[in-house]
Amino acid sequence: MSHAKSQPHGSRFAAFLLLLIPTAIFLLIFVVPLGSIISLSLENTALGSRFVTFNAAAENNPDQRAQAVLQDLGAMDQKQLGEVARMLNQEKSGFRSLILDTGKKAKTIPPSMGGLVAFDKRWAEPDYWEIISKNAGAISWRHYQKVSGLKLDAAGNLTIAKGDLIFMRVMGRTLVISVEVTLLTLLISYPVAFAVARGSRRTAATILTIVMVSFWTSVLVRTTAWVVLLQTNGLINNLLVWLGIVREPIQLIFNRFGALVAMTHVLLPFAILPMINVMRTIPKAQSDASRSLGAGPIETFLRVYFPQTLRGVAVGGGTVFILALGFYITPALTGGPNDQMLAYFIADFVNKTLNWGMAAALSVLLLLIVILLICLGKLIQRMLAKRERAI
Amino acid sequence: MSRLIYWVSVTFCASFLILPLVVVWPLAFNPSSFLTYPMEGFTFDWFAKVLSDPGWTRPMLNSVRVALGVTVLAVVIGGLAALGVMMTRRGTQIVLSALFVSPLVVPSVVVAVALAYAFGRTGVGGGYLSLVLAHSIVAAPLVFLSVMTSLRGLDPNLDLAGASLGASRIYRFFTVTLPLTAPGFAAGAVFAFITSFDEVVLALFLADPGSSTLPIALFAGLRDRLEPPIVVVAVLLSVLSVLFLMLLNYLQKRHAAPRS
């Protein structure tokens, strides 16, 4: 009987057959591509494939290395040479001219250390050699250095490159906006969920319909509504002017205000629905009992009802926060240049500069944060469940 | 006092949720090209303009084509996954469910980068096929969850009854399990269609000019210039959403009816 209950509709072989296709598709067009962005973020073919001879040369034989560098540089065409020069110049300024000059004359320079140094004194400095061997490998942490703003100097110490903290700042901004949106969403969701769970039958039905219509209307459509409302000569500004609250239209969109309002609106249903689920499980008799024992309605709410709804608040808030982290469309349409989040820069790298490496590194960062938060959420849930069982 | 707090906060918060939509939609019928009140009359001109402009109708047709393809593929993937997962042990169920639900939690920009790169490298290329595949991956989890819910609600005794009467596994599957979970499949199909029809981020990364979808056209229009046709398209999309919501309610009611 227990066997039949655990596998009511078939056998293990049937399960295998059924799962074969979906699992294969999920692996092929979801898991593998996601994994491949990790390798994409570390990939270094642009440099690594250009220094094949150099990578094979013995490190303690300067003449062999010099010969290898000359051979590799000589094998590159003008475009490749320029690309390599540009990338190495990011590590140490002055590298560009060194690579371009040496590359142009690679065939005429005597293939030894002496010959190279005689051509350009800079080849005598170990720094340049260090940088080539560090960047010519098959993988490179270059993109992550750029994302974190940290750099390994010649001595192997981590240093913070000045002005290179752009992406850490974007990361911080993404977290701040997500926290702000989560708090606003929770504040507005609570009364709505409360009305659905506790209101009269008609109020509950009306408000639930409103929530569901909002939930089913696409993110883009709801964002469109806000763009129309908030624009300079839009409905809200006209209303404010008509009411005499402001004399001239004020800037409501393409700034933090616009981004926060629109994102909050878009994410509201994701907080409301889990809250309703939790609130519905709280028996009304508890509040009645509290009232009959002499507590006022506000005290009853704060001491009996509210603490029990916190689980729903946590689930709703967590969902909203995780969704907000990856937002792209809504802030792109309602925020200003200083309100763009991580996702915007990922899209920017792909669409504008075709810099897949940076897009992949930022994607990995975003994905790691999301996974971390989900694990944290699961952990908290488990701890709460354990505590409830202990009580 | 507490009643007052309750009503004020509920009214305010519920209005915030619905008023932006309700207030903006009538502007699609306003003859003026300024998107503001007071309305100068009532007209369907903007609707006629949108429905006769290939710049809007072509993306519309593309969206429908993509969404139909996604519905079929997502129902097959998600449905098979749910049926299969239900037959495995508890431990396997947890692992596989996590796999089949995971596209819902990965930010769509990340999925978009991963798929754009993978499709570009394997030569699937931009266009119809890549859009259908990408949307199916994010829609399949919804079908999976929907079918899982109806499978969980199934009374195992029905299957046992079939077995005791001598029906084979396969016969029971087609005559007992599948018909009883059909509403779950139907709801999943509705979810899949609307998810694909409304999806922007993946489409922005994967579509080529020939397979541009309605949300892409809407997004581009919003970035470019705010005009009444944009509101018209938004109204059309909302109407579609509400219709699908009603369809879903109907399916759920039918699902619940025989049991009560």
Account of the 3D structure:
The complex is a heterodimer of chains A (391) and B (260). With 391 residues, chain A is mainly α. Chain A has 3 domains: 2-42, no CATH class; 47-136, no CATH class; 169-390, MetI-like fold (Orthogonal Bundle). Chain A contains 20 helices and 2 strands. Chain A has helices at 2-6, 12-42, 45-48, 52-56, 62-75, 78-89, 95-104, 113-119, 126-135, 142-148, 166-198, 201-216, 219-230, 235-242, 256-280, 284-292, 297-325, 329-334, 342-351, 356-390; strands spanning 150-152, 158-160. Chain A has a two-stranded antiparallel sheet with strand order 1-2. In chain A, strand 1 (150-152) and strand 2 form a beta hairpin. In chain A, helix 11 packs across helix 15. Chain A is elongated. With 260 residues, chain B is mainly α. Chain B has one domain: Orthogonal Bundle (MetI-like fold). Helix content of chain B is 77%, strand content 0%. Chain B contains 11 helices and no strands. The model of chain B has no long low-confidence stretch (mean pLDDT 90). The chains are: A mainly alpha (391), B mainly alpha (260). Chains A and B meet through helix 1, helix 2, helix 11, helix 12 and helix 13 of A and helix 1, helix 3, helix 4, helix 5 and helix 6 of B.
Strand adjacency order, main sheet of chain A? 1-2
Alpha-carbon distance between the two ends of chain A: 33 Å
Percent of residues in beta strands of chain A: under 5%
Full CATH superfamily name of the largest domain in chain A: MetI-like
Predict the CATH topology of chain B.
MetI-like fold
Q: Helicity of chain B, in percent? A: over 70%
N-end to C-end Cα span of chain B:
41 Å
Number of domains of chain B: 1
- List low-confidence stretches of chain A: 1-9
- The portion of residues forming beta strands of chain B comes to under 5%
Judging by the overall fold, what is the CATH architecture of the largest domain in chain A?
Answer: Orthogonal Bundle
Looking at the chains present, what oligomeric state does this protein adopt? heterodimer
Number of strands of chain B: 0
